Structure formats: C-alpha cells, structure tokens
Amino acid sequence: MPGKTRGVVLLVEDDRNMAVLVGEWLERHQFEVDFAEDGIDAVNLTRENTYDAIVLDVALPRLNGIEVCRRLREEGVNGETPVVMVTARDTLQDKVDGLDAGADDYLTKPFFPAELEARITALVRRRRSEVAPAVLQVGDLLLDPRAQRVTRGGEAVDLTPTGFRILQILMRESPRVVPRPQLEQELWGLETPDSDALRSHLYVLRKAIDRGHETRMLHTLPNVGYRVLPIDAREIEAARRQRARVRARPSERMRLAEARTG
Fold it and tell me: Mind listing the pLDDT tens digit for each residue in 1-26?
C-alpha cells in the first residue's frame, strides 16, 4: 500500500532547473508533484486530473500564467484548487493582476523552497478545513478528528484507518457528492491501488456505519461518486422501485403495441 501523501501539487514552471529544485523539495516533504512546462499543457492537465494545489509561474510559453489562472477558475475540476503564483515581477500591479485572476497567494522570485512549501501547506489545510479540526456531524453520525473516534446514535463505531479517512472526507464535504477520482487522490495520491481497493473499503465502511439502522448514511451514485447523507431506507427502496418502473415502461408499451397489431 502506498505511503501517505500530504497532497498532489501541479508545478507549472518553464525553467527546468527551478522546476527540479522545487519539485525535489516538495517530494522530500511528502508531496507528490506533477509537472507542466507551458500554459497550454497546464490547462490540459487540470482538465484531466484533480490537484490539492497549483504552483503557477506567470511568464510561461504558449499561454501566460494569468490567463491559465483565469481559465482554471472558469472551468474544470480544479476551479477551487488553491493557486500560488510565482514570478520575478514584484510590482504592486503585478500582484493585483495575479490575485484578480484568481490566485490565492503570490510569491516573488527568488524564494526559498521551504517558504513555498509552507504556503502550499497552509492553503491545502484551509481548503480541507484542517486548520482547527472540529467534530463533524451528519445526522446522528459524529466523527472527532482529534480523538480519532466515530459514534452513531451515541454508540462507538470501529473503523479501519482507511475507513476513518474515507468517512472524514465524505462528512467534510456532505451533502456534496465526492467524485471517485478526488476521493482516491486524497487517500493515496497519484499511486492509486487497484480498482477494487476503494470498493472494498467502502463495503466495510458501509457495514460499520449503516448496519442495523433504518436511516442509511453512505450512498454510491453510479458513475458520479459517493456521499454521506441521512436517507431513510424506505425512501431508497421506493426510489429504486420507481426507477425500475420507468425502465420497464418502454418494453410494456412495445408489448401493448404488438398485442394491438396481433
């Protein structure tokens, strides 16, 4: 099983020496790093992958960093991903332009990799609401990150470490649906295990938190993702029957038409 990662960073830098220096520093400090050397490649990568943070140089070939940031905020799965803009330009207007384009932070070259790492860490933690972990609650399900404890209806729930992390992510985002790629990335970074790993963890987690309860918490939305939301089992069954009836209607109409023409 891959080791725990602090997050996946997209580093967009056309200076290869700088990219190697920063990339190696981040990797030594448990970040996984994806690279792009120009603005077009950066935009394409953000359309195909999700990232925890993006380090974006301003002076890029093919498409400058300001325009990349604008496009990022307007489209794709990384529309809310924290962006640290880095540049040799240090005028007030340069910083205003970067922040207006949607950057979350601005760092002037030259800088120490440790300072960039600290800023990335702060932005990632803020986005994940990890600055001051609070007890998460959805219905009668409670998760305490500090105590590493989960209860449902006041009774303790035993989870595996991975199950606890999955539940923490889903409860943090509730009622929003978490896409499978995002969930896998937060759990394992770029080194995602085989496709059955997440399914197995979710099966065990669902049994742990939903067994014996009429109200179900963990839901799978096929081809979309997963979410934690209290829904009565009877409502779920009624919805399934309704979908089955809708799927059956075309064949029923065909049988009626054949009977009339027979």
Answer: 345 678 899 999 999 999 999 999 99
Identical topology for domains 7-127 and 136-235: no
Cα-flanking dihedrals φ and ψ of residue 222, to 5°?
Answer: -50, 135
Residue 105: both structure tokens together:
């932070």
CA 17-18-22 angle, to 5 degrees, is 120
Rounded distance, CA 58 to CA 67, Å?
A: 9
Through-space distance between the first and last CA atoms of the chain, rounded to whole angstroms: 62
pTM above 0.70, yes or no: no
> Where do the domains of the chain lie?
7-127, 136-235
Dihedral sign computed on CA atoms, order 132, 137, 138, 143 = positive
Instruction: List the one residue out of 188, 182, 143 whose CA is nearest residue 162.
Output: 188
Cα 206 → chain centroid? 20
In angstroms, what is the C-alpha Rg of the chain?
Answer: 23
CATH class, domain 136-235, is mainly alpha
Q: Topology of 7-127 in CATH? A: Rossmann fold (3.40.50)
